Amino acid sequence: MRISVVLVLLMTLCGFAAAADDVPEPGIRRFGSTALRHALPVTGVAFDGERARLISTSFDGRVLGWDTATGELLETLHEGSPISRLSRSADVRVLGLSRASGEAATILDRRGEGITTRDLAGDQVVVSQDGSLAATWSSGTHEITVVDTASGDERGRWMVGAEGVLYWVAFSDDASKIVIVGRFGTSRRDLHTRIAVHPLAGGPPTTHETDGSPTAFAFSEEDGVGVVHLGFADGRLVRRSLNDEEPIAWQADTAPIASIRPLGHARVLTGGGSGSIALWERAEGEWSETWRVAAHLGRVSSLGFDASRGWLASGGEDHTISLRDLVSGAALFVPVRHSGRITAAALSADGNTAVTGAWNGVFGLWSLRDGEVVSSFHESGAGTLNGVALLADDRVVATGGREGRLALWDRTRDTTRVFEEQLGSTVTALVAGSSGRKLASGEGDGVVRVWQLVDGDALENATTFMAPRNASVGALAWSPDEGQLALGAMSMLAVVDLASGRALYEVDMKSPVTALSWSADGRRLAVGLAARAAVVLDTESWETIARVPSQGGRVQAVALSEDGARIAVASVSGVEVLVHSVDGEGAPRSLGGHSGAVTGLVWRGDQLLTASADGTAVLWAP
Q1: Which candidate, 577, 599, 580, 602, places its Cα nearest to that of 590?
Q2: 220-251 b/e with 16+ CB inside 10 Å = b?
Q3: pTM score, two decimals?
Q4: Does the chain have fewer CB atoms within 10 Å around its N or its C terminus?
């Protein structure tokens, strides 16, 4: 992770910048780039040399075309159910989309005008190099059907053994054979991992057995001889020629091999389960590592290569696409953004600075005036960040996350960590008071702590109490005068007077409390619920003023405007934010500028900041 963060910083200093992202109306500015990024893990990448772009697929169900010079999204070729794997013809005119949902696999045919779409009988598909044939099967089965990609007519059907399951399928370069890797046999007792080569014209297959259960597969032909590459969970890479030569094996990684890309006789690329990419070259019969880079946070799911430019593309579990030079492994384009989904966000008191935290424990600081990164990205060492805050006139950043670490970072000292406290449980919520001198933290074991900033860069635990029923704290919000703290613990909502430690209000909301927001005048409190709704309470009578629905799914974030007249609501299953009038006047306004679920909402004046799982934040004037 450290290497990837350093690479982002270095490439930014060298003049690489994110492509200008479209800011949706009524947005003012986007923080971070959507360039070369999907809303969910990337599952396939391929260079389209003729059209000078990169094609990618993802679990978000989209097939996208990108400009490789700027990272700009040029086209959406297809949208549908989650895509688990991309297969394509050599000219990238025919694309095969395997499905993760069990729905029908899809062929996208771009050989004529426009795009022809054809659904198949199975949920998995592989396309031949010339694009004329596709092999399709269903997950968990051992029967393959080969069809004509243009007409959909069946060209043959093969049963792989009497029992078993298929892992991978590939066509020979001339589409005369199919190569199958799976665990199959003549009976349940005879199940072994096997490589089988079936002639499409008929005739008996040739079969080769191999040890273990592969985690990655690639097939290529070298001088007319088929070569299979298999990766394994222990990091081994096995190269096996199908002319019955002895297989060659070497230790390619310490993590599972997740993807493989052969580059001819003497080179092969591997993508690891830990996010690294390595280039291996053979000299005098020995394979050795030429370079290795940390390209992604999480598994490298796919690898693509453009031989004309010597460019490597990789798709990652972290939703991103990386472009690199094959010779050096150096990044060619590094958009300024979080490498992972944003999980927490906060604004400075003056509204000029935003801090965002991500699932990988990295936090970033942004200038709301010009949209630039203030001090790049920094690792908190706290696991997934569930809370970030700004203290001491925005000089100090507070972070808390899954590892239970609460830390302070001084921006004036190169964002150096100046304070750290190991708490007894996961930090589940973190929020700063309006003075910038107080901080409240909630934990997974129900402990709530109120901290006072002392000596400018340290915290003193001023008050500790337990949430109702000792339940995990899901949300916290300060009253504007810092005299009261609202907290949600499972379905319980409590408002605690900090001077006396007494609960002024406590009620069972009948649904888990997921988010809280107090209006600037202190007269209204918004409560987000897992029951797909948010309620607004009057803090004098504690009566419900309004109840508004979410777009869909449980509420993930809420924010009251400073005058308490409007409430913004975001749900875990929607990408849009709904802004309602608390008094019920007019229809809600929909803000649809993200490609991932909105995870954070903060209102300052007439502006609203939204942070999203797509790795970006947008400032709006709704």
Answers
A1: 577
A2: bbeeeebbbbbbbeebbbbbbebeeeeeeeee
A3: 0.77
A4: N
Q: CA–CA separation, 622 vs 619, rounded Å?
A: 9
Cα–Cα dist 550/529, whole Å: 9
Question: Which pLDDT band holds residue 2 (cuts at 50, 70, 90)?
Answer: very low
Predicted confidence (pLDDT) at residue 16 exceeds the cutoff of 70: no
- DSSP secondary structure of 255-267: S-EEEEEE-SSSE
Residue with tokens 């590459």: 229
pLDDT digits (tens, 9 = 90+) for 394-427: 899 999 999 999 999 998 888 899 999 999 999 9
Containing H/E element for 10?
Answer: helix 2-13
Q: Contact at 8 Å (CB) between 22 and 34?
A: no
Q: Calculate mean pLDDT across residues 336-345.
A: 85
The answer to whether 272 touches 258, Cβ cutoff 8 Å, is yes
Average pLDDT over residues 91-106: 95
User: What's the CA gap between 37 and 616, in Å, rounded?
Assistant: 10
Tokens of 213: 């259960």
What span, in angstroms and rounded, lies between the C-alpha atoms of 171 and 414? 54
Q: Is the confidence at residue 583, as pLDDT, over 70?
A: yes
The type of residue at 323 is: L
C-beta separation of 229 from 260 below 8 A: yes
E strand spans, 100-132: 106-109, 116-119, 124-127
- Buried b / exposed e over 314-331, threshold 16 CB at 10 Å, is bbbbbbbbbbbebeebeb
pLDDT at 21: 59
| Maximum distance among all Cα pairs of the chain, rounded to whole angstroms | 86
Q: Residue length, the chain?
A: 622
Question: pLDDT-based confidence at 14, cuts 50/70/90?
Answer: very low
Q: Running DSSP on this structure, what letter comes out for residue 468?
A: G
Q: DSSP readout, 515-579?
A: EEEE-TTSSEEEEEETTTEEEEEETTT--EEEEEE-SSSSEEEEEE-TTSSEEEEEETT-S-EEE
Integer Cα distance of 143 and 314 in angstroms = 31
Report the distance separating Cα 323 and Cα 69, nearest Å.
10
Instruction: Give the C-alpha separation, 21 to 69, whole Å.
Output: 14
Residue 544 burial by Cβ neighbours in a 10 Å radius (0-12, 13-18, 19+): exposed
SS3 for 9? helix
Phi and psi angles of residue 297, each rounded to the nearest 5 degrees, phi first: -100, 105
Per the CB < 8 A criterion, the answer to whether 476 and 428 are in contact is: no
Rg of the chain, C-alpha, whole Å: 27
Both tokens of 160, joined, read 């792989």
> pLDDT at residue 4 above 90?
no
| Beta-bridge partner residues of 544 | 537
Q: Give the Cβ contact number of residue 461 at 10 Å.
A: 13
**Residue 261: which residues within 8 A CB-CB, separation 6 or more?**
218, 268, 269, 270, 271, 303, 304, 305
CA dihedral 508, 511, 515, 517 (to 10 degrees): -50
End-to-end CA distance of the chain: 37
Tokens 């080769």 map to which residue? 208
- What DSSP element (H or E) covers 143? strand 143-148
Query: For residue 270, with 0-12 CB atoms within 10 Å meaning exposed, 13-18 middle and 19 or more buried, which class applies?
Result: buried
CA angle 586, 587, 589 (to 5 degrees): 120
DSSP 3: H
